[in-house]
Model the fold of this input.
Amino acid sequence: MRDDSFHLLKKLVEAPSPSGYEGPVIRIYREYVEQKADFFSIDVMGNASAIISGEQPGPRVMITGHCDEIGFMTQFIDEQGFIYFSAIGSIDHQLIPGRKVTIHTRQGPIAGVVGKKPVHLMEEDEKRKVPALSDLFIDIGARNKKETTEKIMIGDAITLDVNLERLLNNSICSKALDNKVGAFILAEVLRLVKERKKDLCGELICVATVQEEIGIRGARVSAYQHKPDVGIAVDVGFATDHPNVDKKRVGEFSLGKGPIITRGANINPLVFDGLLQIAQEKKIPYQIEGAPQTTGTEAGVMQLSRNGVAAGLVSVPCRYMHTPTEMVSLDDLETTIDLLGHFILEQSSDFSFIPI
Done:
């Protein structure tokens, strides 16, 4: 991977962006793509759209990657200055106690820890119990409520304090790979298409969307606004190449074996066939997922926008999703970029995605 590309990925992943607080990561995305696009805009929700127009007619292809992450919000401060919080998105409570966090305030970031009774002081039944989120609290070292409220406001966003790390076999781990890798892939696809703009028919619309983790909200607005012919969601998917996962129920997906291309009712069959054909012709490794119902991704809301959109879903295999140590392969990021870039550049003016 190019050094500049890896630097962008690291900045995106480490920027705080819980749903509703995506400003820091949108600013990074904008700085990278704005000068490469023919048109760039940010809507009232915060979705960031970068558009490249080809010289020949063709389909309007919109690819989306949500840039929000799961996190927390300050909810209550007690008399001793301890902070109680609620979840933004779906979070596994048992992974939170004892973690370092950052509270993002109007005065700047404040470090804290999620407090926990020492194991030495626990009764046996306490050791086996997963604490309710409402029982957990954050300690910033304040002596009392006054000291805390001088720095912290109710509604401040909170993120886990975990940086991106490189591991063996070209893999990385961090919080928020779901789905900063999607926004990263969009930015790199835009860069590659820009370099071959003379081959582009129609339009490419790359939208870093917001508020996916709390109801797939940003993509719904963006699909309505841009009226795409094709809408491809770029997200992470469940890797099942680790212990305690039932492959018979989920499917078989591995890190380093290429992007996951989804097929099923949520997916336009001609979009799936086009992605599959590109992967086979260009010898891009790929994996196939069967989705008998809606996918629970941005492909679901794009498909149903206005009078219908030809939807697709391309996912990066990810281990340990919605934990502080999500893991993906850099090789899979690059092959996903390659797949999408070729798919977009091989569209033509005589396109049709009517499946019959």
Q: What stands out?
A: The chain has a mean pLDDT of 96. The chain has two domains: 3-69+175-345, 71-160. The chain is about 30% helix and 30% strand.
